[in-house]
Structures are given as structure tokens and as C-alpha cells.
Amino acid sequence: MALRNIVKDGDDILKKKCRPVERFDQKLWVLLDDMADTMHHANGVGLAAPQVGIMRRVAVVDIDVEQKGVIELVNPQIIAYSGEQCGNEGCLSFPGQWGIVKRPNYVKVRAQNRHGEEFEIEGRELLARAFCHEIDHLNGVVFRDVADRMLTPKEIEEMNS
Ligand code: CO
């Protein structure tokens, strides 16, 4: 268990497309464990590998509802989506910034687990939003790129009060 540094706004790493994972080895497992620790420590609901400087298609999500625990996604892709939700979104790489982002209200993701076994998982509402946000990271896309607009300091103040 170890915490990794989170790459912040302004680092070009966040704009790069990640490569697929090919080896499901100890190195990947340590990365997944460290990413979960780092996400929890920072009170985030998701974290993608490029946010800790690793350019591979790996993400973790834990929205802390439905007791699903940490969802590990290796080489994830969205294979179905429907509906729409519009809401506030933030990112551990952009502390203090919030944007209004439209996302599908439902997505189905196909991914591999830490052993390379393929699985599918569905998400609605916040979970769908988290899947979309993290998979965007793997393509070098951050929420600010897809936000309708960013919240003003006054709106953030109201949100936090
Ligand atoms: Co993010």
C-alpha cells in the first residue's frame, strides 16, 4: 500500500492517450492497489492511471454507494449508453475546480480485471458519470474539455455552504 503523487492541472501527461495493458502481472496489481489508496486518501470517487503518471489504460472507481467497493477497470471501453444527465463534476487533478458536464445517464462498460478476465459492468447516474470521466482520462480528455461551462467561484462557494 502506497500513495502516489497526483498529476495536476497544467501537466501535459493529462492530454496524452494511454496504451493498452498487455501484462497482468504484479506491477499492474501494485498499481491498482496504489491507485485505490491514493483515490481514497484524496476522497475521490475515481482515478485514472495517467493521473499518477502511468500511461496505461487503467482506472479505479469507488462511488461509495451500493457497497460495490473499488471497481478496477483495465482496458475499459463503453459498449452501450443511453439517456442524459447534467451535473457538477470535479477531478482530483483539478482541485477547487468544478464544471457542468453532460453525460449519459446509463453506460455499459466492458473491461478486464486484474487477471485479464473480461467482464461487463453497468452504471447509472454517478457511477455512469464516473466511468465516462475516467475513460476520458485514458484518451487524454479531461472534464474541463467537455464541460458546458465551469462554475464561478461564487457558485462553488454556494455549493460548499
Ligand atoms: Co479526473
Could you please describe the fold and organization of this structure?
By secondary structure, this protein is α+β, with helices and mostly antiparallel strands. The protein has a single domain (12-160), classed as Alpha-Beta Complex (Peptide Deformylase). Helices cover 25% and strands 28% of the residues. The protein contains 4 helices and 8 strands; from the N terminus they run αβββββββααβα. It has helices at 26-41, 126-138, 143-146, 153-160, and strands at residues 46-48, 58-61, 71-82, 85-89, 99-103, 106-112, 118-124, 149-150. Strands 1-2-3-6-7 form a 5-stranded antiparallel sheet, sandwiched between helices. The chain has a 3-stranded antiparallel sheet with strand order 4-5-8. A hairpin with a 5-residue loop joins strand 6 (106-112) and strand 7 (118-124). It is globular and about 45 Å long. The model has no long low-confidence stretch (mean pLDDT 96). The structure holds cobalt (II) ion (CO).
Describe what is shown at a glance.
The chain is of the alpha+beta class and 161 residues long. It has helices at 26-41, 126-138, 143-146, 153-160; strands at 46-48, 58-61, 71-82, 85-89, 99-103, 106-112, 118-124, 149-150.
Query: Based on DSSP secondary structure assignment, what is the total number of beta strands?
Result: 8
* Average of the residue pLDDT scores: 96
CATH topology: Peptide Deformylase
Strand content: 25-35%
Main beta-sheet strand count, sense and barrel state: 5 strands, antiparallel
CATH class wording:
Alpha Beta
The tally of domains stands at: 1
Query: What is the alpha-carbon Rg in Å?
Result: 15 Å
Which strands sit side by side, in order, in the main sheet?
1-2-3-6-7
CATH superfamily: Peptide deformylase
Which segments are poorly predicted (pLDDT under 50) over 5 or more consecutive residues? none
What structural class do the secondary elements suggest?
alpha+beta
How many helices? The count is: 4
- Percentage of residues assigned to helices: 25-40%
Any idea what the CATH architecture is?
Alpha-Beta Complex
Secondary-structure element pattern, one letter each: HEEEEEEEHHEH
Mass-distribution shape: globular
- Bound ligand species: cobalt (II) ion
State the end-to-end distance. Answer: 34 Å
